[in-house]
Amino acid sequence: MENKIKQRSEQQWNNLKKSIDLCLRVLTTHSATPERSIRGHVMLSYNWSTKPLIQKLKAKLLAAGLSTWMDEDDIGTGSLNQSMATAVEQSAVVLICYSFGYRWSVNCKKEAEYAEVRKVPLIFVRAEENYQPDGWLGLLLGQKLYIDLIKDFDQKSAELIIHINKLRSQPNKPSPVTPKPTVPRTFDSAEGTAGSAEQSVKTLSHQLGTVALDTQNPQFLNWTVEQVQTWLKNNGLEFLLSPY
After folding, report:
1. According to a count of CB atoms within 10 Å of the terminal CB, is the N or C end of the chain lower?
2. 3-state secondary structure of 182
3. Contact 163, 147 (CB under 8 A)
4. How confident is the model at residue 207, as a pLDDT?
5. Which residue range(s) make up the domain with 122?
C-alpha cells in the first residue's frame, strides 16, 4: 500500500513538473524579449493629427543614420497591443511627440506609460503649437525639458538628433523585474518517504492551486504565449513570468 501511494504521489509530482517545464519551453521559444541595446530603434510615438510633421521628422532621423519605428510602416500584423509593446521593448529611445490629440489617445497613453515602466529613455517633443499638456500627459512631462519642433524645425531636429545619440551611447538601465515570491522547499524535490512526497504535492496544490497539464497532448505546444501566460496566472505561477 505504501509503495502504491509513493508511486501515485511521485507521478502527480512529475506531471506537475512537466507542466511547468512545458510552459517555460513555450515561453522561451516564442516569447523571449530581446534586450534593449544602444542599436535599438528610435520609436516615434505620436497621434495621427500631427502625422505630416512626424513624417518629416522621421526623414531627418533616417538621413542621420538612425533606425526608426513608426506605426504606419512598422506596426505589422497581429495584436495591436503586442506590436506596440514590442516596439517599446526594442527601442533605444522613445520620442513622445505630444499634442492635444496625443493627450486623448488611448494607444498613445499606453505607449508612453509602458515606455516609462520599461525605463526606456524618453524625449518629449512638442508637435502642436502652443499646446500645454494636462492630465496624465502633464504629469508624465512634469518639469522635464522638451524640444519644440514647431519653431525652427531644422535647428530643433538637429538638436534632437544630438540628444538621441547621447542617450544611445549611455549604458542601458535594466527594466524593472517583479521580485519572485518565496517558493516552498517542497517545490524543488519530491524525494523522501511516501508520506513526504504525497504531502509535497498536496502542499503545492493547496498553495498554488496548480492543475497539471495533459503533457501527452501535443496541442499544448501550439498554444500562444498568451494562453501559456493565462494558464500560469490561473494556477498561481506568476513568478515564472518575470523573465518573459
Report:
1. N
2. coil
3. yes
4. 44
5. 41-168
Domain membership flag for residue 200:
yes
pTM over 0.70: no
Query: Does residue 2 sit within a domain?
Result: no
Same domain, 159 and 185: no
Cα angle at 86 between 85 and 89, to 5 degrees? 90
Q: Is residue 108 pLDDT above 50, yes or no?
A: yes
- Amino acid identity for residue 79 in this structure: S
What long-range pairs does 141-148 form, CB within 8 A, spacing at least 24? 141/96, 141/98, 146/98, 147/123
Q: Residue type at 203?
A: T
Same structural domain, 221 and 201 = yes
- Residue 68 near residue 94, CB atoms below 8 Å: no
Cell of 87: 516596439
- Dihedral (CA of 108, 109, 115, 119) sign: positive
Among residues 145, 168, 191, the one where a domain terminates is: 168
Pairing of strands 122-126, 91-98: parallel
Same domain, 184 and 147: no
Q: Is the dihedral of CA 224, 226, 229, 230 positive or negative?
A: negative
Backbone angles phi, psi at 24, to 5 degrees: -65, -35
Decide which of 133, 168, 203 is a domain's last residue: 168
